[in-house]
Amino acid sequence: MLAHNVFFSLNDPSGDAIDRLVASCHKHLKDHPGVVFFAAGTLAEDLARPVNDRDFHVALHVVFEDRAAHDRYQPSDSHQQFIEQNRDTWSQVRVFDSIVDG
Q1: Domain spans of the chain, in order of start
Q2: Spatial contact of 29 and 79, defined as CB atoms under 8 Å apart
Q3: How far apart are CA 39 and CA 2, in angstroms?
Q4: 3 state DSSP class of 52
Q5: What pLDDT sits at residue 102?
Q6: What pLDDT is recorded for position 95?
Q7: Measured between alpha carbons, how far is 45 from 54 in angstroms, rounded to an integer?
Q8: What is the mean pLDDT of the segment spanning 40-57?
């Protein structure tokens, strides 16, 4: 499986802006073929240990059944729509892809 984890920092860190991006993740990115796990949410404010990276507002976690499913997702219309509709709201995007066992 391939885990695709994306961490978004926003230009506007208000609760409304964060909620809009989480909703957009669910609208555009949730139901792709080959997805075995999907979640989108926010920084856990109460976890502030020295080891916690807290430099994001919204986290997206998508696990694909294999690399081929991930590679089909990247150019898909709904993924491209998500990027087009939201890119101006991002101050930073960090992507972490890894091969995982389930």
Answers
A1: 15-45+55-87
A2: yes
A3: 14
A4: coil
A5: 77
A6: 98
A7: 8
A8: 94
The enclosing H or E element of 92 equals strand 90-99
pTM of the entire predicted model: 0.94
Whether the Cβ atoms of residue 27 and residue 34 lie closer than 8 Å to each other: no
In whole angstroms, give the CA distance from residue 10 to residue 27.
Answer: 18
The domain made up of 15-45+55-87 has a fold known as Alpha-Beta Plaits (3.30.70)
Task: Name residue 62's amino acid.
Answer: V
If you write DSSP's letter for every residue of 55-87 in order, what string do you get?
Answer: --SEEEEEEESSHHHHHHHTT-HHHHHHHHHHG
Positive or negative, the CA dihedral 62, 64, 67, 72 is negative
Q: What is the pLDDT of residue 2?
A: 98
| pLDDT tens figures, 70-85 | 999 999 999 999 999 9
Q: What is the mean pLDDT of residues 38-42?
A: 98
